Structures
1.
Amino acid sequence: MNAFVAILQLLVAAAFLSIPVVRARYGATATAGAEAELERQGVRKTVLTENGMRFDAGGHETWAPVGIATALAAVAAVNLFAGSGSWAGPFTWAVQSIVLAINCVILYSNLTAVTSVRAAFARKGGELARIDVPALLKAAEDGFPAWVWVLQNVRHVVVFGASLGVIGALIAA
């Protein structure tokens, strides 16, 4: 069972690593599209950078998924090399539950992007308050290949499915 759990955890780790890989490859194109949309709207294109909004692999878009993948790889190693009855079970339960919760937050953020960005821009006011957020986000999305949105959905299925598989295996053990 430990090997099964470790394999599922490594699948989840790989799913999380897909985020910075895709953003590193296509983020500049997405940023250019967003900046062009801002210029079309008569807003300075530097306003995104000035307010910490990015579409590339910088910042938390890299350190968070890489950190999660590293933690999962470490827990997978514990599961592979620790004997049954060790502290691997409780450790796995804790880490996998946290990863599952984090993915819920990511999914919620994806589903409410327009609303949350619009609210954040309204709070900051000024130029940000007059940005057409759906058009901005659409321009950024268009900078990524169409398959990226399929990958995003597959990533969620893998993370939710494998995490629930890990938790189910722990319960069954």
2.
Amino acid sequence: MPDEIQERAGVPVLVCDPAGPPVATLEDALDLIGAVFLGAEAVAVPVDRLDPRFFTLGTRVAGEIMQKFATYRLRLAVVGDISRHLAESSALRALVRESDTSGHVWFVPDLDGLDARLRALATK
């Protein structure tokens, strides 16, 4: 499946193909942000599409990508199991906790989890 805009819980979301190109640089993130302007309000990126450096906070990859989405006021959902990465880094655990409350970046286990977050946001 190519990256495609899907309506999820009433919100247009660019759902990225798990087999698509990796998101490893700020330029890769900007490519996704550009695609969002076709009508999506959020981007759902599978964990497997993210470069492993995303989960090593010292590389600053996660911070740069997350900041770019926040700057454009777009929601980024990291979709999939990150438990292995969380087990290796207390800093990442703290980032995920804080991000999940901020509203711009969410870490969800699957697309159903994203739908639940979007529905909860709509009822606020």
3.
Amino acid sequence: MHLNPYGEPAVVLAADLANRPPESTEELVARCVESGLVIDFPVTDDDLSDVHEILDRWALVVDATAEEDRAELVNIMLEKASAYPRMSNHADDGWHLHYRDDQHSLAGVLEALISMGTALHLVGRGMHRLGRCAVEECHVIYADVSRTGRQRYCSPRCANRDAVRRHRAR
């Protein structure tokens, strides 16, 4: 059975791209391929600016504090990006489902992947499992894929820094 790349890999890629926005189309393609995305369609320079806009909209999902607001924002992304699910073997690596039309641009593929992945991540793991680092001066986005679901920091470094700060404050 071939499992879909929607869910955890999609939100991890979205967080990575949002935290370190690619500066060139070549960098965007390289990071997508590195994450396991098969790019078997044309890529243009317009994809870079379109992806930056998608990531800005996705950051609104991350920053939404109420579950209803978060769900509404994801639904808007899904409505814009998704199509009927379809079976595909486009890379000759096994049949799997795509929640997008064939022959999209890279930005279109990422929009479908990120919106569907975010929806699956939030309903499957919990609506609270996207956020920004709890350290006030750190604005890094994280996708909580931990077993316990209690991630508050982007990294152990920020968690340790905050623990030291709280200890010294006492």
